[in-house]
Amino acid sequence: MKTILIMRHGEAVPMQAQDEMRVLTQKGQAQANEMGWWLKSHYAPDAVLVSPYLRAQQTAEQVLALNPVEFNETCQDIIPSGDAAFAVDYLETLISLHPQYNTWLVVAHMPIVSYLVDQLSPGKMPIFNTAAVAVIEYDEVVHRGCFLKMQAPSK
């Protein structure tokens, strides 16, 4: 069994012409830091996939400062308009290629984070607060997950 953690980025500045360049607000940085501590004390990721968008990269940086990992990859497929089925296929391939990693963190955006949960644990499609983390227990043999819970920052 593996653990897959699906995380939405922290609070970002309002929409602008180049959505991929939006940065975290101070609150978003604090949210990412708080969830980084939560992850460190509960799950300690081994591997991370992160969206190329700046706000997701900044969120991952906050988390990884507290949780150094051996495998860290930027994935072009986990953007807001990305195809969740394709992204899950890619994640499952990485899991099979790197069996030594038991806890995978994916840092991305709404709405794809909700769709990722549904792809991994059909029938579950939570709405994510900023910096929230969905916890999925994943059986790589049958390619099926069980949604366990959602954890959100206190602020």
Automatic annotation (TrEMBL):
Pfam families: His_Phos_1. The lineage of its organism: Bacteria, Pseudomonadati, Pseudomonadota, Gammaproteobacteria, Alteromonadales. SMART domains: PGAM. CDD domains: HP (cd07040). One of its GO terms (cellular component) is cytoplasm. The gene is sixA. InterPro entries: His_Pase_superF_clade-1, His_PPase_superfam, SixA. This is Phosphohistidine phosphatase SixA. GO terms for molecular function: protein histidine phosphatase activity.
